[in-house]
Amino acid sequence: MILGHGHPAVLDAVQKAALDGFSFGAPTEREVELAEEILKLMPSMDMVRLVSSGTEAAMSTIRLARGATGRNKLIKFEGCYHGHADALLVKAGSGLATFGNPTSAGVPPEVVQHTLVLEYNNIEQLEQTFAQQGHDIACLMIEPICGNMNFVRATVPFMKRCRELCTEYGSLLVLDEVMTGFRVALGGAQSVYARQIPGFAPDMTVMGKVIGGGMPLAAFGAKRAVMEYLAPLGAVYQAGTLSGNPVATACGLATLAEISKPGFYEELSRKTRSLISGLSQAAAAEGVAFCGDSEGGMMGFYLLEQLPQNYGQVMKSSSDRFNVLFHGLLDRGVYLAPALYEAGFVSAAHTDEDIANTVTAAREVFKLLSK
After folding, report:
1. Res 245 pLDDT > 70
2. Which coenzymes or cofactors are required (predicted)?
3. Is 97 a residue whose pLDDT tops 80?
4. Three-class SS of residue 105?
5. In the list 24, 40, 93, 351, which could disulfide-bond 98, CB 3.0-4.6 Å?
6. CATH homologous superfamily of 264-369
């Protein structure tokens, strides 16, 4: 909810769309308009397919990557979450790029046997895996800023190497921008990395959340040469009765119109940085270990001295101390994500007063943590 709840322009668009009909089971004009707007803002794609959830988008992207490359294996990184498709519910085993082990009941080992799980930000392990299995890898899927480890950035050298190795071995680089897309910048996280890596662009992009404005809508896209493998043009099947829902697309279009206005991200970024800075100062004043980071309207923090770079380092953060902070803030009227592994989001609706009140409440709780 990057605009907050009940934004007038979004409400108006949704109410008007609802009067026209909830669902038609066929493409609509607004679906095309939303697709065109997404492609304008994320030029790494030529074509986009709308679906109803991030899980559906990620699942379809993997199927398309496999169909386009004729390969089976995929790389994901420990701590990254790409929805609850069976092939992605995997944890890492010991050693280098071991076959995945299911992390959910109901997922047979055979389903995840082609999923390779690597350590986030580990260039050496990445290079070894491609050297050993690169010609069998259909795609590498990554959260460019991992919001399911709270907030861990892919380092610029790591992201650059991901791009180089995918190009070298003919694998597809997939950025999962369900969280980061249109939240950390108007062009998503890929635009942030493109400013630091000349010519950088992913082969495929997964989107959700912001593009639906709070309604069930997601998308995936790529260059035309890849997307044309999708049915009805190609042999990779994907369909959904409610995909591109007319009410959801109206909500998404209205949201993108608002966030595209001049100065939107500058102001959103300022408020998010202000929150992280205020929390850092409050923790320091009470002698509590704390570190945080943000990009656009996305932020995260840890009760640690230094920002983690991977899942193993994230796990060093104390869940017991976080629980004290969470419940202490909740008692004071501030609701954080209820787990230390989840990123936080600042919306355009949050005010400087909201941020100041949050920092004041946090300092009271930091006093408890310092005892």
Report:
1. yes
2. pyridoxal 5'-phosphate
3. no
4. coil
5. 93
6. Aspartate Aminotransferase, domain 1 (3.90.1150.10)
